[in-house]
Design brief:
Elements lengths: L43 H19 L3 H6 L3 H43 L1
Length: 118
């Protein structure tokens, strides 16, 4: 038999479903090659805040049914909503910091050519 991926005496390529190890030895030939699209820019803070609010509202809506969820072994639904809201708060903090850094960088880029001209 073969001596491993791409080694001397490798087995011929198989037809059908590929294994995870096949990616290293030729799966890229089926991957289309094109440039990555430009990232979408928009009001990211509003999007993350909206998602966070939805998770928290879902938590609050389910809270009165705590007993039912516990009886039917579905309590994780409640905690998933709370975790989504908590992670959303971290996301809001992160994207606000990111937007502030982008604005600072853009302001510095605008000021740099003016300072060099004087």
């Amino acid at each position: 038999m073969g001596q491993g991926i791409g080694g001397k005496g490798s087995a011929p390529p198989r037809r059908g479903f590929a294994k995870a190890t096949d990616y290293a030895c030729g799966m890229t030939k089926w991957t289309p090659r094109h440039e990555a699209p430009e990232p979408l820019e928009g009001n990211v803070v509003a999007t993350i805040t909206g998602g966070t609010v939805i998770w928290f509202v879902l938590f609050l809506v389910q809270l009165p049914f705590y007993g039912w969820f516990e009886d039917h072994d579905r309590l994780w639904w409640l905690w998933t909503c709370l975790a989504g809201a908590g992670l959303g708060l971290i996301g809001v903090w992160y994207v606000r910091k990111r937007d502030a850094a982008i604005r600072r960088h853009a302001a510095a880029q605008r000021e740099t050519p003016e300072a060099a001209a004087h």
